[in-house]
Structure formats: C-alpha cells, structure tokens
Write a structure and sequence with these properties.
elongated; about 160 residues; alpha+beta; five-stranded antiparallel beta sheet; about 30% helix; 1 helix; about 25% strand
Length: about 160
C-alpha cells in the first residue's frame, strides 16, 4: 500500500469510529429517556392519587361541622397544619392533614416511590407564595421520588373554601 492509500484507510476508520460512537450515544440517550418515562408515569399517578384523596376531604378541621363565624381567621393556624392528634394516613379528615405526609408505595413492578406532601395557605393573587395567616386558599404540593428517577415529580393543587 502506498502512503496515500494508508491515509485514506486511516481516515475511513476514524470516520467509521465517530459514526459508531455517535449512534451508540444516541441509543443510550434514547434508553435513558424511555426509562425516565417508564418510571415517571407511575410517579405522576401516585402524586395525583394523593391530590384526589385530599380533594375528597373537608377544606379545614374547623368547617367539618358548622363553620366558625370569623372566617378565615377561624381556620386552622398555619403553624398547626397537619394531622390532629390520633389521626394518621390514610384516615385523614381535612386537606391540611396531608401537611408533612411521608409514605412509601410500591408499584406492581416493584419500584419503591416515596411520596411527600406539604400544605400551606396562599393568596389567590399569588398562589405560589405561602402566607403566614389563614386564607380561603390552601395549596398542596405532592412530590413522588424514586431512585429510578433523575429528579422527583411534583404536582400542586389549589383548594378554595366557599360557603353559601
């Protein structure tokens, strides 16, 4: 072989190696995206199920019977949000009982998810910002995480109180 042919063969090998590595990298990235979706969908479903459970509960402990006359000040104080004495998941009776929730759930394929929740008062004009006083709006943030997810999944829901 002459020097020119050797250089062409060497260049072809470099080009072939570059193409093979690029294809391999793309396949790995595609597999990562597939794995993330495979474990992200159940995480979303678990977080949504907690929100739906909370939606079936009363807005506040103070309104499970006759609402207090001094609303919203009569609602549970922000420092007291969480389950009352003797209450534990899943036997909760109002939305703010989910504050501090930390449970684990296992899917049918054996993946363990940790589900946490926090509940806080917000204003309608700023639903992303917690306030330090009772309002007619509570927000719940539910986070589902797993060792199979690169980052946790967080869903939020805003509850409002109204009476006739």
């Amino acid at each position: 072989m002459q020097m020119g042919q050797s250089m062409l063969v060497l260049g072809a090998f470099v080009l072939l190696t570059t193409v093979v590595l690029s294809v391999h990298r793309a396949l790995l990235q595609n597999q990562d995206a597939t794995d993330e979706a495979q474990h992200g969908i159940p995480a979303i479903a678990l977080a949504q199920s907690i929100i739906e459970e909370a939606s079936a509960r009363a807005f506040d402990e103070e309104v499970t019977g006759t609402p207090p006359p001094n609303l919203p000040d009569g609602f549970t104080q922000p420092s007291e949000l969480g389950p009352e004495a003797g209450e534990s998941y899943p036997d909760l009776d109002d939305v703010d009982d989910y504050n501090g929730l930390n449970v684990q759930d296992t899917t049918s394929v054996g993946v363990i998810y940790t589900i946490t929740a926090s509940v806080y008062y917000v204003e309608a004009s700023a639903p992303d910002t917690p306030v330090s006083y009772p309002t007619f709006f509570k927000r719940i943030d539910v986070t589902a995480s797993s060792s199979f997810l690169s980052r946790p999944v967080t869903l939020s829901h805003l509850f409002s109180y109204w009476s006739r």
